[in-house]
Amino acid sequence: MNPYVISQAPLVLGFALLLIVASFRPHQKESLSGLISIVALGATAVCMWFWPPDVTDYFGGAIHVTPVGRVLAYICLALTAGAMLLSDEYLNKIHVTAVDWRMVVLAVGMGMVNLCLAGDLPTLFIAYELVSIPSYLLAGFSHRDPRSNEAGMKYLLLGAFSSVLFLLGLSFVYGATGETNLLAIHDKLAAAVSTGAAADLVLAKVGLALILGAVFFKVGVAPFHTWLPDVYQGSNLASLAVIASPVKVAVFGMLGMLLWGAFEPLADLWKPVLLCGAAISAVMGNLQGIRQTSMKRLVAFSAVVNAGFILLGIMAHSATVVIFYLGSYGIMSLGTWAAFMAMGTPKADVDELSDLTGLGRNHKWLALAMTIILLSFAGIPLTSGFAAKFGVLLEALRPDMDTPRHTVQVLLLSVVGGLISFYFYFQIVRAMWIEKPESRGSKASPLVPELRWNYVFVLAMSVVVIISLGMFLRLPGL
Prior knowledge:
mainly alpha
């Protein structure tokens, strides 16, 4: 049997089993659906391990398996499994039907795997929508919360606009080349560039611009990021563990493979666009982040800043650095949501900075783990965040790298922006370790975290990976 079909079977079978569980136990508090989901994700990863090691095509090139795509798929599956583990008990706490939520996440998982392995335009669009549509549902899943309803609606409307741009861009590319296979599109564009076929290149460039706009909306690159803080603030933490971690990895990975593959002949167009997006993200993400007191909104603007660095890595055409950055960012993001879940009380989540006042005095290990994650976000040495950022800067400054004008200025701007980001990360550290509960007023009460085993396990694993990657793993050139 086709190895690709075998690898997708566990996700389909897991989805079917969840439907059965939902039919017989629709509103009960249970963990069976979580076990089924994690086993399905793990079985998919195991089946993918036995794929042929070289580049392989399935279904006439609709699925194009490359080493980069396979690694990105593994990262997405691992992060999704971590998010699924975090959801145990938390969904009961926020009064969300667990089995329904997990069915939606399995659909996202299937979309992310195929997004990393898409070999033609129809597969690319279907996988893109299979990631997008369930993500809208996840954002608004806490239907009893008005903020969640607002987040889901805002994400749906802007996401639909993004999908329209994406589909329109793919249509222009097809019109310019007459091909749907991504490798064939690359060959047609390369031939058009070499022969100077201006008409075909105009259509292709318009299509590429639309695709870039759609992806920038999806991943929150400034100035297309204005929806991101509202969606983060309204979504529950379990949904954010999916939307803000594996989904980001999959979409950024898709962008990198598209630009390095099908659109590589148009590098003179997309490299300046990525550079501009990185510069605006460094400025707007940091300046807007320093004014935040909401924990979720602060993390949202941190995501904007990190998106700028990822764009620089893609512009530098370094698959190793981009994969390392995406993996590091994914685990840092997952660890952040695990820490927020652990800091929450049995009836409420942490929301404002004031909720963390004095945490380091009463729960030192929890505060220490959160501090390490924040240091990694800030790019402090001996963390994976520092290694990832430093790797991006080195690759972009390589002497043999064909980079656009003003690349050095944008890199300096990103570094200065990183220094500014220390301020809003330090706000959280200060609240946990320095400020006293009474400094917030007489109404302040000590935080009583809900330290469930799954929160602690995912948080501890995130910290171990962050430190291990930062201290022991070395990227080429570092």
